[in-house]
Every structure is written in structure tokens, then in C-alpha cells.
Write a structure and sequence with these properties.
Helix content: 55-70%
Distance between the termini: 101 Å
CATH superfamily of the largest domain: P-loop containing nucleotide triphosphate hydrolases
Number of domains: 3
Radius of gyration: 27 Å
Oligomer: single chain
Strand order of the largest sheet: 1-2-4-5-6-3-7
CATH class of the largest domain: Alpha Beta
Bound molecules: adenosine-5'-diphosphate, magnesium ion
Shape: elongated
Structural class: alpha/beta
């Protein structure tokens, strides 16, 4: 029998119970063997493809987190995380954005027709937009719609994990993702660009960007590569151009703020119906994730203290009610009554002014 160091490595990884590291390692071997022994490389590659990696561990899967924390801390840091979402939550999207994402699905469905004409369905996209507006959620949603596993690559981990080896680490991850249809999500891709100003690892970062440049363009069209950034201005324009699609996420429109509030209120929507206009007004300009946090807080208030939750809404949304001047409190009460159809009595109580004052003020404004 021929002795090979690779065999030893594969055996060690397999016996350590790290099937996904085995997979990563094999993907590396395929790359190496392509030049020296293309037939062997093809056979290996076939094996990888024939055994899709639905259950594997290069990635930390969510259930691993339930293990004894002492144990999991000793595990090597992984670069990839497989995410599986059981919910069928749909992101709220503006029309233009939704049609862009639907386009991805549509091109997949028509891929044969497209390929006959020498066209390829989009296989890469870059998502830009502020935090908390659904970039990760949409990557998730796409993976679910395409019925593909979703892997998230933490680029900061790639860089810090094995210093000086980040290039080959990134390559292994990309090879791994190429070896079977999946969605690979490169979150915070600007992490590469951002650190460019730091002289010490310029060479290393350049190498990473170059690897990505090579890989994005001919990403397998059965898979999907998605990069995301909150800082588009930091991303290398050469990299940007390589993506098939450029998708911009924005803060929710007024219409979507309302939809989000109602969705996040869930079964409590009815009990909040009289303050919905007020909530929409107060959440304008916030991200979906901020809106969700606020709504969850208010719902908890409601269930813990059903009597006092209305004042809780106000003290939460207008934390400085106490510090408002009398004039300010009066005009706020008037606003609640006029714009949000609040009963005068309630507005009066919340803001500590008399009903008469409110009534007079409204009459004054009307005359
Ligand atoms: N478009 C959206 N529709 C519904 N909920 C959203 C949306 N965007 C964000 N959220 C909520 O905020 C959370 C965080 O959003 P995420 O997709 O991680 O934002 P991003 O990746 O853009 O920073 C989501 O899990 C979801 O609860
Ligand atoms: Mg995100």
C-alpha cells in the first residue's frame, strides 16, 4: 500500500468525527489533484457531489449550541455556520426589492430555457443597506425558496482564525460551497475592505479580495453566492462589479412600517388598534429590527400590566414626558386627540392636563 500524508489527515479527521472537515479537506485535494491527476480529481469530486453535505460539521449548527458549553468551547473555531430556519417568516419588502428577489427564483425556474440560449441564471448577488432591514433574512428566505442549505461565512473569522493562512482557508470554504448546490452568505463583506487601511495586513487582504474576484464570476449556477454590507462605500468597486445582481435594501416605507407593526403585534394587534397610528408615527425612520424590539417590549408590558400598558407605551416612546413643559404637554395631548383619534379623557390623563384645556385648545385651533 502506498503511504500518503493525505490519507493520514483524512483518517484523523474522520476518526475525530468531523465529517465536514473531511469534506473541506477533500475539496482541497480535488483542487490540488486537478493538475497532477485530473481523473482522480474528477472521481473525488463526484464523491463529494454524490453525498451532499446536509448533515455536516465544518459548520456549527444551531443544535450544537445546546451542548455542554464547556465541551463546545474546546471545539475548533469553525468558519462556516449552517443555518436552518423552521419558520416560514417572509420578509416585508418594498415592491422593487421584492421583484428583484423574485427574479432570482424565476431565473432558476427557467434555467433550462435560458441555458439553451447561452444565458445563465443569476448566481451571485450583493445586498446593501442599513442594519436590521432584512438582508440576512432575505438570504434565508431565498435559500428556503430554492430548497438549498444556507451557509454563513464569517469573514472576520477567516482572517483571524489561522493567521497567515486566511487565503487557503477562504479557498477551502469556497471549494466546499462549490462542491454541492447551496447558498453561501458572506456577511459583512466590507470586513475585508475596512481593514485595508491597517497597513499590517494589506497583503493578506489583497489576497482575499483577489480570491473572491476569481470565484464570484463563475460561481456555479446551481448555487447562489450572496454578499452583504452595511457599508457599500467601503467595498472594492472591482469586487462589486463581479456580482450578477446589486440589491439595495432600505428603511421601511410608511406603508411597511404599518405592516411590520401589525405583523409584530401578532395576536395582540386588536388590543393595540387604537394606538396603531401613533405607533406608526413614532416608528417612522426605524429599521424593522428596531421596530420589532419596540413592539415586543410593549407587548410584554401589556401582558404583565394590562391596566397600565397604555401609559407604558407613552413613557417608552416619549421617555421624557415628565420633562415636557406644560405647553408641550398640552399640544401633545391635542395631537393625540386630533391626529390619532384618542379619547380626550385618556389623552388628558396620560399627559397630566385637564380635559377642558384640551377641548379649549382644539376649539382655538379650529377657529
Ligand atoms: N424586511 C423585513 N421584514 C420583516 N422583518 C424584518 C425585516 N428586516 C428585518 N426584520 C427583523 O429584524 C431581524 C434582523 O434582520 P436582519 O435580516 O438580520 O437584518 P440585516 O441583515 O439587514 O442587518 C429579523 O430577524 C427580523 O425579525
Ligand atoms: Mg445581517
Amino acid at each position: 500500500m502506498k503511504r500518503s500524508p493525505e490519507m493520514l489527515d483524512v483518517a484523523r479527521l474522520a476518526l475525530e468525527g468531523k465529517p465536514s472537515d473531511v469534506r473541506l479537506y477533500l475539496a482541497k485535494l480535488v483542487r490540488k489533484a486537478r493538475k497532477e491527476d485530473p481523473e482522480y480529481a474528477a472521481q473525488l469530486e463526484e464523491l463529494l457531489k454524490a453525498q451532499p453535505s446536509r448533515s455536516n460539521g465544518v459548520m456549527r449548527r444551531s443544535q450544537h449550541q445546546h451542548q455542554d458549553p464547556g465541551l463546545s468551547q474546546k471545539e475548533e473555531p469553525s468558519l462556516l455556520r449552517e443555518v436552518r430556519v423552521s419558520t416560514d417568516q417572509e420578509p416585508l419588502l418594498d415592491k422593487a426589492l421584492e421583484s428583484q428577489l423574485q427574479q432570482v427564483l424565476l431565473e432558476r425556474r427557467c434555467s433550462e430555457k435560458l441555458e439553451e440560449k447561452g444565458l445563465r441564471p443569476a448566481s451571485s448577488a450583493i445586498f446593501q443597506g442599513p442594519p436590521g432591514v432584512g438582508k440576512s433574512m432575505s438570504a434565508n428566505w431565498l435559500a428556503r425558496k430554492l430548497d438549498l442549505p444556507l451557509y454563513i461565512l464569517d469573514l472576520t473569522a477567516v482572517m483571524s482564525s489561522l493567521l497567515g493562512k486566511s487565503g487557503s482557508n477562504l479557498r477551502s470554504v469556497l471549494d466546499f460551497a462549490r462542491s454541492h448546490p447551496c447558498v453561501l452568505f458572506l456577511d459583512e463583506i466590507d470586513a475585508i475592505a475596512k481593514r485595508r487601511s491597517d497597513e499590517s495586513d494589506v497583503g493578506e487582504l489583497k489576497r482575499l479580495v483577489n480570491i473572491l474576484l476569481q470565484e464570484i464570476e463563475d460561481w456555479p449556477h446551481k448555487g447562489l453566492l450572496i454578499a452583504a454590507t452595511n457599508h457599500p462605500e467601503l467595498v472594492d468597486p472591482a469586487l462589486w462589479r463581479r456580482f450578477d445582481m446589486d440589491v439595495t435594501f432600505t428603511l421601511p416605507s410608511d406603508e411597511n412600517v404599518r405592516k411590520a407593526i401589525i405583523e409584530f403585534l401578532g395576536s395582540d394587534a386588536q388590543d393595540f388598534s387604537h394606538v396603531i397610528d401613533f405607533l406608526v408615527d413614532s416608528q417612522r425612520g426605524e429599521s424593522y429590527s428596531n421596530i420589532k424590539r419596540t413592539i415586543n417590549k410593549l407587548r410584554k408590558h401589556k401582558h404583565i400590566d394590562p391596566e397600565g400598558f397604555e401609559s407604558a407605551i407613552f413613557s417608552y416612546l416619549i421617555p421624557d414626558v415628565e420633562e415636557l413643559s406644560r405647553q408641550e404637554r398640552i399640544s401633545f395631548a391635542v395631537k393625540l386627540v386630533r391626529e390619532f383619534s384618542f379619547p380626550k379623557q385618556r389623552a388628558a390623563k396620560l399627559l397630566g392636563v385637564s380635559r377642558d384645556t384640551i377641548r379649549k385648545k382644539i376649539a382655538e385651533n379650529q377657529s
